[in-house]
């Protein structure tokens, strides 16, 4: 049997250590947020006044005012600064704005913008003031999200409300292998605020 030289032993040990470190690095990667369809109601023309506030177009929108915030991260957990984040959802009447859905009733809530757009800060953070999403025929309450990060493909997903009974009857929600990353608890605010609920939705973009 051949006796290994000292440098071969050291080299083998270093290789094993390197593999272990590599394995730990791989294990530390965050699972990506599952992608979902943008649906048929993405605005064909983006509103010029789009921003973080969806509820003060004229007066105050109907519905439960809700702050949704979070961070956009890459698969290693690194925050992505300067990423574009868009949201769109139906108003308290179940109507999408900025699209022609062929409906006239119920009426649109003129105080709700229906679409928002921000750019993440240095910590990858974003924040929107909107309403708690409501159901409409065939869908559980949800908010559409789209991200455009430098060097990454455009990514679209949907945020759902934890504890919503209609989730288990929604085909898109049930199609998710693991819905936990897109299912967000909306909690009552601890102190008096303009909004009544708040939720945190971190989004991890894949490699």
Textual characterization of the structure:
The chain has 207 residues and is of the alpha/beta class. The chain folds into 2 domains: 1-29; 31-204, Aromatic compound dioxygenase (Protocatechuate 3,4-Dioxygenase, subunit A, Sandwich), CATH 2.60.130.10. Helix content is 13%, strand content 24%. It is built from 2 helices and 10 strands; from the N terminus they run αββββββαββββ. The strands form 2 sheets. Strands 1, 4, 8, 9 and 10 form a 5-stranded mixed sheet that branches. Strands 3-2-5-6-7 form a 5-stranded mixed sheet, with no helix packed on it. A hairpin with a 6-residue loop joins β5 and β6 (155-161). The longest helix has 22 residues, at 6-27.
Core attributes:
single chain; 207 residues; alpha/beta; Protocatechuate 3,4-Dioxygenase, subunit A; 2 domains; 5-stranded mixed β-sheet; 2 helices; 10 strands; 13% helix; disordered N terminus
